């Protein structure tokens, strides 16, 4: 059994059975039955199940939110928002099951095909392995399951061993809503189990959210199957001299420290026009100092714990290394158990891990830049990117930044951490494989089948 602990108190929240890697054959036998059961569901039936599940989650929103707080350490405010997003994700998936059925193909528009007509449908892939992280234990699971079920697939779900309880409750809710039990198989285990699953030939797709090292290992092991991966980020936000500094400060503070910084699109590098750098920096640090760190179940808490004390210590060690290399600490870097205070750095060396690697912690660096061109160059210096942001009052600069920034999404007059569940979401440079966002994930998780009828206009 794996014990699930509250990141803040260390108390046991629950436990789940562990699936050994040697049991993969049994898991796949069930998944194959699930594939047949899923294919037996009409589009309307899939949509109805997803709609009912969305309503059930909405009706039990506070219970789901409290579970997220207890196993993931998100503040109650953040957990409620995640629950609301999961409701939306399920509802969007239901709509996709009804809407995205395929298209008419205009065969007769081309010479030699005048007597042909036809269409293509979107058909399920079969069995999908979904591997999810701890930082959004409900909505990221919904982002895997919703589109996969809408498309008529069976799923083997491997949630994070640190936060499996929200995933299990969501699956139970889907079954209560009418989903045949064997359509989703939940397994709990370590890297050896994950490696065994992704290597199975009958698995037609692996959908993974997590780190680059694991993503590379999956790519080496998976063989000939579809891969969709949302990997790490190191998001830049550019603040130009004509920006609304009040909006930029508030948005970037939220973007940097939401979910204790355990956020792949969280703001990590803020690049500020030198003319307004000191004003922005001082206001940013002052606002950061007002954030309350502590008990995530307290309505007044702004920043809860990191997922484990070990993760918090690793964040501090990385900051200490940057400070030893010449960075300046503006605030934070205080550690108490799994609580790590919101930390702001400047003068971070270009080769420092704190600047070049994903922090996945409440750590942000601020840096002055002397031109728009320099801001773009520094923003693009990392070879992987999910989101970026830019604050400016000039539409020409905003559109130029949107064109030049190497990122999967560019948020204008918003921080990098904005995400709407219907938008395409994924990496842009190294490691970019597929897209999430319900419609786009649905299309990744289905395949076109063309039907062409050859006939004549008359006897």
TrEMBL record:
<dbReference type="InterPro" id="IPR016161">
    <property type="entry name" value="Ald_DH/histidinol_DH"/>
</dbReference>
<comment type="similarity">
    <text>Belongs to the aldehyde dehydrogenase family.</text>
</comment>
<dbReference type="GO" id="GO:0008911">
    <property type="term" value="F:lactaldehyde dehydrogenase (NAD+) activity"/>
</dbReference>
<dbReference type="InterPro" id="IPR015590">
    <property type="entry name" value="Aldehyde_DH_dom"/>
</dbReference>
<dbReference type="InterPro" id="IPR016162">
    <property type="entry name" value="Ald_DH_N"/>
</dbReference>
<dbReference type="InterPro" id="IPR016163">
    <property type="entry name" value="Ald_DH_C"/>
</dbReference>
<feature type="domain" description="Aldehyde dehydrogenase">
    <location>
        <begin position="4"/>
        <end position="451"/>
    </location>
</feature>
<dbReference type="Pfam" id="PF00171">
    <property type="entry name" value="Aldedh"/>
</dbReference>
<keyword id="KW-0560">Oxidoreductase</keyword>
<protein>
    <submittedName>
        <fullName>Aldehyde dehydrogenase family protein</fullName>
    </submittedName>
</protein>
<dbReference type="InterPro" id="IPR051020">
    <property type="entry name" value="ALDH-related_metabolic_enz"/>
</dbReference>
């Amino acid at each position: 059994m794996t014990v699930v602990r509250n990141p803040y108190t260390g108390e046991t929240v629950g436990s789940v059975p562990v699936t050994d890697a040697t049991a993969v054959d049994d898991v796949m036998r069930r998944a194959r039955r699930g594939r047949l059961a899923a294919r037996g569901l009409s589009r309307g039936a899939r949509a109805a199940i997803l709609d009912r599940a969305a309503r059930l989650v909405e009706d039990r929103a506070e219970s789901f939110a409290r579970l997220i707080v207890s196993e993931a350490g998100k503040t109650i405010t953040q957990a409620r928002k995640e629950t609301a997003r999961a409701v939306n994700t399920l509802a969007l998936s239901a709509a996709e099951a009804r809407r995205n059925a395929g298209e008419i193909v205009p065969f007769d528009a081309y010479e030699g095909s005048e007597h042909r007509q036809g269409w293509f449908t979107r058909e399920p892939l079969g069995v999908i392995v979904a591997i999810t992280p701890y930082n959004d234990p409900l909505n990221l699971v919904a982002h895997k399951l919703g589109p996969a079920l809408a498309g008529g697939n069976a799923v083997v779900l491997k949630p994070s061993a640190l936060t499996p309880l929200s995933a299990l409750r969501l699956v139970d809710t889907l079954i209560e809503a009418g989903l045949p039990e064997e359509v989703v198989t939940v397994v709990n285990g370590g890297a050896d189990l994950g490696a065994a699953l992704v290597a199975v030939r009958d698995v037609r797709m692996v959908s993974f959210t997590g780190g680059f090292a694991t993503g590379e290992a999956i790519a080496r092991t998976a063989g000939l199957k579809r891969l969709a991966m949302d990997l790490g980020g190191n998001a830049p936000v550019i603040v130009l001299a004509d920006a609304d500094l009040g909006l930029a400060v508030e948005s970037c503070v939220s973007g940097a420290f939401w979910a204790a910084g355990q956020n792949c699109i969280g703001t990590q590098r803020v690049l500020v026009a030198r003319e307004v750098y000191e004003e922005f920096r001082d206001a940013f640090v002052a606002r950061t100092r007002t954030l309350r760190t502590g008990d995530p179940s307290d309505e007044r808490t702004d920043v809860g714990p990191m997922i484990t004390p070990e993760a918090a210590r690793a964040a501090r060690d990385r900051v200490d290394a940057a400070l030893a290399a010449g960075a300046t600490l503006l605030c934070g870097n205080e550690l108490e158990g799994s609580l790590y205070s919101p930390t702001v750095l400047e003068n971070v060396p270009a080769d420092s891990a704190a600047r070049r690697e994903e922090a996945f912690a409440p750590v942000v660096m601020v840096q002055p830049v002397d031109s728009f061109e320099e801001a773009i160059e520094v923003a693009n210096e990392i070879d992987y990117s999910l989101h970026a942001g830019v604050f400016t009052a000039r539409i020409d600069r905003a559109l130029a930044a949107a064109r030049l920034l190497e990122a999967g999404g560019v948020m204008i007059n918003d921080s990098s951490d904005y995400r709407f569940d219907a938008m395409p979401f994924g990496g842009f440079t190294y490691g970019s494989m597929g897209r999430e966002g319900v419609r786009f994930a649905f299309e990744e998780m289905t395949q076109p089948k063309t039907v062409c009828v050859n006939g004549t206009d008359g006897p």
